[in-house]
Each structure stands twice: as C-alpha cells, then as structure tokens.
Amino acid sequence: MKYFITTAVAAVLATSAVAEDWKEDYQVIKFGILSGENEKDRIARYTPFEEYLERELGVEVEIFTAGAYDGVIQALGADQIEFAFLGSSSYAAAYTATDGGVVPLVSRVQNDGSTGYYSVIVTRCDSGLNDLASLEGKVLAFADPDSTSGYAVPYFNLAKEVDPKTYFSAIPFSGSHEAGVAGVVQGTFDAAATYQTNETSGIVQRMVDKGMIEEGEACAIWQSPEITSGPLTARANLPQELMDAMTKAVMEIPEKDPAAFKEMSGGETSTQKGWIEVDQERYQWIVDMRDWLKKQRRS
What we know:
The chain is of the alpha+beta class. Helix content is about 45%, strand content about 20%. The N and C termini lie far apart (about 75 Å). The relative contact order is 0.18.
C-alpha cells in the first residue's frame, strides 16, 4: 500500500513540475492592448489586471502598447509579446499575417448574456445629421484600418448601401476611437465610427464618464448588426501549459479580483460580467470579411 501511495504522489508531483516548466523560459510575460483610448488611460485601466496576473502566474507581467493597432499585431507576429487583447478584426489581421500563428482564448460575456457589441456612427447631437442620407458629402472618420467596429464592420455594411469612397467627401482614419469621437465634438469630422455594447456602455459613454466630452454632445445615428466580441489572443507557439494558466487566471478574475476586473472591463460604465472560452471558428467570418475588404481596396 505504501508503494502505491508513494507512486501516486510522485506522479502528481511530476505532473505539477511539467505544468510549471514554462516559467523557466517565460519569466516575463507581455500582453498587448490596442489603441482604443489614450495610452495613459489604457495603462491605468490594465495595471490592476497586470498585478493580478503576477500574483496568479508567479512571473513578472508587462503591458505593451503601440500607437496603432498594427503595432500590437506586429509584436505578436515577431514573438515580442505573448498575449494581446484584440478586437475581432485585429485578431483576424493577426491570424492572416501569421498564417494561423495566433490562438483565441477567451472573450467577453455581458450582464444580459450577450457575447457581442455593435459598431455605431456618431455625430454631434446638435448637428442635424441624424441618418445615413444626411451624411452624403460629409467627412466620416474611421478609427484604424485594423479596427473591427471602427472600420471593417461599418465599411463592409455601408458598402451594401453606398460607395463610401464617393458618397462621403473624405473617409480619414482618426487613429483611435476616442480621437474620432473627440474630432466629431470639436468639428474636425462630421461623423465617426466607433462602438458600443448598449445605450449605457461604449466609447461615448466612457468618454463622458472620464470628463472628456459632455453628456449629449455625441449621438449614435447608425448601428451595425451584432459583432462577435474580440478575444484575448495568444501566440500559437507558446507552451500549452502557459496558455492554460492564462486562460484560467482570466476566467477567474471576476471572482478573485472584482476591482481589477471592473477596471479593465470599462469601470463604472462596464456591463461585462465574465468570460467565455472561444476558438478560431468563431472568428472565421471576420477573416473572410477582411479578405473582401482587401480585394475592394485593390480594385
């Protein structure tokens, strides 16, 4: 009996040792976040999450930011970072650019059980621009070429009704969702594409909450079909044990560190309640949509 007990304990210890082997090669874990808001606020919002991961994973964790979405995508492809929070379109861009070298791990679940969000076009509430017809000949700003809600989805859906290249007087990129909305409020753009989860949670609502704009300055006048929420993404060449440890830590943060979870998911305006595990099949339609957009640009 003692022999069997000893053997069983040894097996458990051996399995545990194998599961922890990744820490020898990954003593610092870097995760990227996209440029949806200014860098200072991005870092502040994810710092509690960074500290939570260090406690849970037992290694140093660092935030990686870039001035554009493509900077995070390139960092993944160059093995400069291990994980990144991506939108659906930026995930598809990374998947294509790396020939399938990235893996989606988890995505968001809202309080109402939904797992998606919407692209919206906003204008100044007092501008008189209140539908797509009123935007003809106006300036519509998109956020970033690799933004799902800020470019890919609105362009794809608008193109079913009009030719964006000729219908609008200009379709510049603002650089970020916040910059686009701020440009609308300041009069730089007539309209801008951004996102919202519902009427109480989104970029406009977050900017109001942060005091960047006033309530009632920016209004949504167009909304897309529902978009699959983007995933926390891992490089496919990482040890499975590391990806499993990260998945477990993220799935458990709502219970283990509610304050960090609330901050990373949007603060007071957040409607997120947790996470679901996801796979590549969930995002294939986004990959296909981006391929269509690329062909449109070439033509």
